[in-house]
Amino acid sequence: MEATRWLDEREDRAWRGYRRMRRLLDLELARELTQDAGLSEADYDVLSDLSETPHGRLRLRELADLMLWSRSRLSHHLTRMQQRGLVTREECADDARGSVVALTPAGRLAIESAAPGHVAAVRRHLIDLLTPAEIDALGALTHRVVDHLGARAPRPRHAPEA
Amino acid sequence: MEATRWLDEREDRAWRGYRRMRRLLDLELARELTQDAGLSEADYDVLSDLSETPHGRLRLRELADLMLWSRSRLSHHLTRMQQRGLVTREECADDARGSVVALTPAGRLAIESAAPGHVAAVRRHLIDLLTPAEIDALGALTHRVVDHLGARAPRPRHAPEA
DNA sequence: GGCGTTTCGATGACATGTCAACCAAGACGC
DNA sequence: GCGTCTTGGTTGACATGTCATCGAAACGCC
């Protein structure tokens, strides 16, 4: 057990800033999204990912992996979105266990109406506040961290554990 | 209504990277924290903020503002932490409505045992992956966004609304 | 002092997320 | 084909977060 390397002043500033930004940005984006479009961020992300696929369709598992959600969470959430008419579940042709999530016309309308406002909010509260160099730096740094974490994310079959 | 300024390739890369990092980092830090210290991130933040004050004490409202939590959320959470013996509520001398949250010895022990491991994890999965320049850039950029958002956060008394 | 307004915190109903258990069906070895 | 193991998805119990409401106390004005 070695002496802890605490964060120095600059590291601490970055870490605290990150956490605070995270929280404030979340609150504000969620607030605007509910107010302007009647969607939660979760709803938006589901609809957004679906709308980016060829036919607005994805296997439940694929969508869950894409969003880094548990299947359970997604299943519960889809049930609620289905009741609101935003998505439907269809049987899967090539795997009788599976189900396919599909965007309804209402769902497509919802995401298409919500997107411009949401993107504008993302710009207003984040992107447009950054210099081009900062945007590139943020892109580089986040992807590096994602790669690092991603490597350990999808735990191998039996989770050998260190 | 003007044409939407969608995100260009670099902006999109930064925005997606940010969201993905956010999620993965959260999952991993939370996982390690529960495993190593039996604390949730919420627990950790409460204990951490308390331990940074002179006597491990804060008014409930102050703590809520500091954490950007609603009072209701904090109140519920404290009830649970109190049952686990990590904090206590005390009456407030100068304001009979108020209550003061105080760290118990067990609470202080918990945060002091958890901190080194948590800081190490933050280093391992984020800080140590960044160059000094990136750390400074992250500090600068996040604080700018926080200032921007903070200005509109604490809604004025009667929330005049635009 | 008395009255209306605001703040503090707690609470209960409800929305959302997590976890473990489950069933059904594919995959694989033989 | 037949056991066995793994995977896909659902479900129910429970943990956590949100929202509206409430009572008590402080504040401000007269």
Describe the protein's architecture and organization.
- Two copies of one chain form a homodimer.
- Mean pLDDT of chain A is 92; it is low at 154-162.
- The first copy, chain A, has a three-stranded antiparallel β-sheet with strand order 1-3-2.
- The longest helix of chain A has 29 residues, at 9-37.
- The first copy, chain A, contains six helices and three strands; from the N terminus they run ααβααββαα.
- Chain A has helices spanning 9-37, 41-51, 60-67, 71-83, 105-125, 132-150; strands spanning 57-59, 87-91, 99-103.
- In chain A, 23% of the residues are buried.
- Chain A has 162 residues and is mainly alpha-helical.
- In chain A, α2 crosses α5 (105-125).
- In chain A, β2 and β3 (99-103) form a beta hairpin.
- Helices cover 62% and strands 8% of the residues of chain A.
- Chains A and B meet through α1, α5 and α6 of A and α1, α5 and α6 of B.
- The structure holds a DNA duplex (30 and 30 nucleotides).
Keywords, separated by commas or semicolons:
homodimer; 162 residues; mainly alpha; three-stranded antiparallel beta sheet; 6 helices; 8% strand; globular; disordered C terminus; DNA-binding
> How many DSSP H or I helices of chain A?
6
Largest sheet of chain A: 3 strands, antiparallel
Identify the quaternary structure here: homodimer
**What string gives the helices and strands of chain A in order?**
HHEHHEEHH
β content of chain A, as a range? 5-15%
Report the C-alpha radius of gyration of chain A, rounded: 19 Å
N-to-C CA distance of chain A? 18 Å
What would you call the shape of chain A?
Answer: globular
Strand order of the biggest β-sheet of chain A: 1-3-2
Classification by helices and strands of chain A: mainly alpha
Helix share, percent of chain A: 55-70%
Average of pLDDT of chain A: 92
Most extensive chain-chain interface: A-B, 51 and 51 residues
Q: Which stretches of chain A are poorly predicted, pLDDT < 50 over at least 5 residues?
A: 154-162
Number of strands of chain A: 3
